[in-house]
Amino acid sequence: MSIRFNTVQEVLENYKSAIYENDVERFISAFDSDIHIYDCWGEWECTGISLWKEIVKEWFGGLSKEGVLLKTDFADLVIEENSNLAFIHCAVTFAAYKESGEKLRQMTNRFTFGLRKVSESWSITHFHSSLPISMETGKGIFNLK
């Protein structure tokens, strides 16, 4: 799937809508083939689009199995960009809903994106999600904001 992202904001809107619609191909289309990811779910890092696509398939598959719609919202969004590079940091909230509209759960964590423009289209080249850690328990703190 080849989608052009003319603005950084289009990349973010695609991120949100592809998650909500559980569309793996559209979600993956915003990431560079050499993507480098630091995520907070089980692995230290992920490199390359093939591995990232498998992780996303598993994530979206779990949502489908559970019958969950996942709404994504960005808060405290800061975008800095020039003609070929962009840097984004924000708080991201994922809220899971049943198809009936009943809210099941939500979590918020911190995201940083690095993007570059290639052939007039923006793509995510680096992605980092994190949580603050409780000094008392050693566990991640969700929904601090």
UniProtKB/TrEMBL annotation:
Residues 8-133 form the SnoaL-like domain. It comes from Fictibacillus arsenicus. Gene3D superfamilies: 3.10.450.50. InterPro entries: NTF2-like_dom_sf, SnoaL-like. This is SnoaL-like domain-containing protein. SUPFAM superfamilies: NTF2-like (SSF54427).
